[in-house]
Amino acid sequence: MDLVLFYVIGFVTLLAGAGVVSARNVVHAALFLLTSMAGVAAAFVLLYAEFLALVQVLIYGGAIVIVILFALMLTRHGEFQVTAEHRRWPVAAVASIALFGLLAASVVLDDRARGTDARVGVGINRLGAELFERWAVPFEIASILLLVAMIGAIVIARGGGSDEP
Amino acid sequence: MSVTLLDIVWAAVGAVALVTAVSILGVSLVWLERKFLGRLQGRPGPNRVGPFGLLQPVADGIKLLWKEDVSPGPSAKVLFYVAPLLVFVPSFVVWLTIPFTRDLALRNLDTSVFFFVAFSTLSIVGVLLAGWSAASKYSVLGGFRAAAQLVSYEIPLIVIAITMVALAGSMSFVDIVEAQRTVPYIALVPLAAVLFFIAGLAEIGRTPFDIYLAESEVVGGPLVEYSGAHWAVFYLAEYGNTFLVGALTALLFLGGWSWPFGTLPAPAAVALFLTKSYFVTVLIFWVRGTYPRLRIDQMMSLGWKILIPLSFVTLVTVVVQRFYGWPSWTLTLMSLATLALAAWLQTRLQGAPARALAEKYRRDAVVVQAKPRLHREAPAAAKVEASS
Predict the structure, then answer these.
(1) Structural domain that includes position A138
(2) Who has greater pLDDT, A164 or B196?
């Protein structure tokens, strides 16, 4: 039953992913993206990673889809018909296939993943302790990166002239 | 443990039960709000259909279902009909992890606070889509207003939720309530309770913050073009969320089902929890009957300049208190001091433009006083001119 559910979820996720790149209407594409993200979250639940599933819903399902929708709705419709049939789409295809290959290879070739019992979820307490003790420095670096990105976004949005207060 | 077919059947039964419960809750809250608002305004409220007007929401519901379901011609039909679901589904999925007593919850997750945070953001997508898909300028404006407002007020709400998690040392509502067995958290962090209530009000778009539904500005915002059953679904989600804010405030700050005089038997505990939740819900209705709507710029500056800094200050004070193990009354003291400081600063700063205006009027008043003297002199001059 687990396996059946996994295949159903995987099928829906992939179908929605195909919908993202093939939908004519960009807002439909954004909704397909939301469905696809929800599918990935469901897969995480099946793999006993409920915290990851919730992060997936919060960050990708909520925040990122909202930002994408905002950007789509604030720009005009006509522009997207042109960008969708861009001449350099083969480059994009090669890049995404290469990225997929890299990620898949890293998962398949990783010996550690095979040895562990994936059926045991990691508790939230252990996750927090690991994140804030052992991996504290990378965590802080990531937060500084986000802060820099935020300041950069504000500078760009303000138009960045030296004469401005 | 693996998933069986029986689990899926039970999940479906649970979902149906949940939707029914949330719907009944919403309908009962409509009656409560109309009756309470009526009393606040010196009216009897609904009193014709059934005893005390109890059947009024049922009659309203039947009317709504019989109404024609209209969609505007240029609207994106699929999105137009999907959007109400995207608003409604998160609002009842969140109830999955809300415990009514220690043992009575549909699912007791270790991460139930985070579950609430994650799923409550999803409804923003629905509101935004509802506004955009109707292809009406008022609903598009309303949709953008809604997205801006909900994204802004999500931050203080989440930071306060994190604060309570840090205070209790657990992400589970059950543990947070158990930690309040002797002292409810509203006594420890009154500022956090105030911030959570205000941010919650904004998050559900109730009256001082119903800016994206403002009839006088955007004639109903994202919901302009909805009618009949689809509009009813939005309405139901709104009342479900209103009670959700009441329940969350009761869980995080008022001690949920616990009270300081020992452990209650389960039915009494549920009754206590519901009493607290209804108390906060009635408070929300009361605020609606009392305060006028904010302007959109006031709403944004309240969120970004006051609520967000204050919520981070609360988080830092709580974490510092927990880390150094100071006695808990220091936390109350710090929280109250921050609240008092913020209130004092706010009244001073808020008064500043008004004081400047008063000063200007006082200066203008001098000129007005001077005018009659000129006026009295003028006829004299005219007389001189006439006599010469």
Answers:
(1) 123-165
(2) B196
Closest chain A residue by Cα to residue B140 = A73
Using a CB–CB cutoff of 8 Å, tell me whether B366 touches chain A: no
The three-state DSSP-derived secondary structure of chain A is CHHHHHHHHHHHHHHHHHHHHHCCCHHHHHHHHHHHHHHHHHHHHHCCCHHHHHHHHHHHHHHHHHHHHHHHHHCCCHHHHHHHCCCCHHHHHHHHHHHHHHHHHHHHHCHHHHHCCCCCCCCHHHHHHHHHHHCHHHHHHHHHHHHHHHHHHHHHHHCCCCCCC
By Cβ distance, the residue of B111, B124, B125 closest to A124 is B111
State how many domains chain A has. 2
Residues of A in contact with B124 (CB under 8 A): 62, 66
CATH code for position A82:
1.20.120.1200
Q: Give the mutation candidate from A31, A40, A146 for the B interface (greatest B CB count, under 10 A).
A: A31
Q: Look at B114 and A27 and tell me if their CB atoms are within 8 Å.
A: no
For residues A102 and A146, state if they share a domain.
Answer: no
Give tens-digit pLDDT for A10-41. Answer: 999 999 988 888 877 777 888 888 889 889 98
- Span A64-90, pLDDT tens digits: 888 888 777 776 655 455 455 567 778
Domain identity same for A162 and A102: no
Whether B100 contacts chain A with CB within 8 A: no
